[in-house]
Write a structure and sequence with these properties.
Layout: H1 2-51, E1 54-57, E2 60-63, H2 71-74, E3 81-86, E4 92-95, E5 109-110, E6 113-120, E7 123-134, E8 137-146, H3 148-183, H4 185-195, H5 212-262, H6 270-296, E9 307-310, H7 311-328, E10 332-337, E11 341-344, H8 346-363, E12 369-377, E13 380-387, H9 418-428, E14 432-437, E15 444-449
Length: about 450
Amino acid sequence: MMTMRRRLLLLLLPALALLMLIGGVVDYWIAAATTRDAYDRALANTAFALAADIRVEGERVLFRPPAVGSALYAGADDATMLYAITGPQHELIAGSARLPREWPAATRAAAGAIFRDLAFQGLRWRVASIQAPTAAGAVQISVAETLDRRARTQRLMLLGKLLVDFAELDLTLLLVWIAVYYGLRPLNALTEQVEGHSIRRLQRFDEARVPGELRSVIVAFNRVLELLHDAATAQQRFVADAAHQLRTPITGLLAQIELLLREPRAQAVPQQLRALQGGIAQLARSANQLLALARAEPVSAMHEKFQLVALQPLVQQLVERHVSRADEAGIDLGADALEAQVSGDAWLLEDLLENLIDNALKYTPRGGHVTVRSGIQDAHPYLEVEDDGPGIPESERARVRERFYRRPGSPGIGCGLGLAIVDEIARVHGASFSIGHGALGRGARMQVRFAAR
């Protein structure tokens, strides 16, 4: 769910970045326009203020500035503002001679002033010009200012606006994150509900406990669960029924072959009958394996009620069951069982250990050893079967868990379901099934480690 939140935020970042870029362009345009308008109005007001100090005495036009003036009136060469007052004959009445005296072509007019940009003395200037009518004729007043001040003001305005935009972006991201976090809380609750379901049950979800926005999804999901449950149940029932139906005639065939082998008439074909007996015995084992696999399916275990199962008696019982087979194969089969209990299905755990012991006896050569263990390791109950046979290479340990997979050169005519059944039963019990090396790096050690109690 955290990944979903991160993905949503990452999807929003390009859009927010584009908005920031557009906002930066708009901020620049606003800052430039606002600064230009403010400074142009100030220049125009200065020109009108100068026009108020123009006097006409006879035919002469005079400029009488206030007694207390500023650098503007002084017209100093290092001033950032200049002015020039030009008479009707374009003669300079007052101010700086550096400013042009001709009446400019209009570039922008505001409140009766005409503005233009000029460059002289290595600087860029903004000039505002007005005409003031007098008795002696029209007088032109021009006021010029360098663009440095307005550029600094524009940068400050743009920087302030960008800082505000970045703060708004951070606030927006925070609000989006909060909205996403609280908006996805129902999904978090649903995720926890899904993860809390047992793997042994295809349990419906409570439609009343989810928000209205998710209710239609839950209804559809429950329908899928019902279909999945029906399909899995039908498949499991078919496998179980087929295996169960095969067991009765196969058992009858084996009994008939046993009787036939004792007949004098069968002495002419004993090898063929024993081959037939072996094949039918393998068929019987395959049917039993299929039945065990069907019982190990999560769907088949969904109605089973797990109980405490003691592992020590289980180990002793199965070792005793296989002692005769081990003796015939010349294998030393022993038990090292300590007391331990797990919550589970006794029949499934018996199938699990049965397959582990059978696998070890099948691959261990004559004169070898097989040890079956149970106990508690780091608070985890476990079942373990160790042998000193050829072992299983690491490259094959994942594949041997697959159904119907048999390693090349495997003895006998097995169906490749033994370790698949072990892996499935372990999963049903929430346990881990690991395959490793035996003692001194020889053979195989297969361990089923259950959850800590």
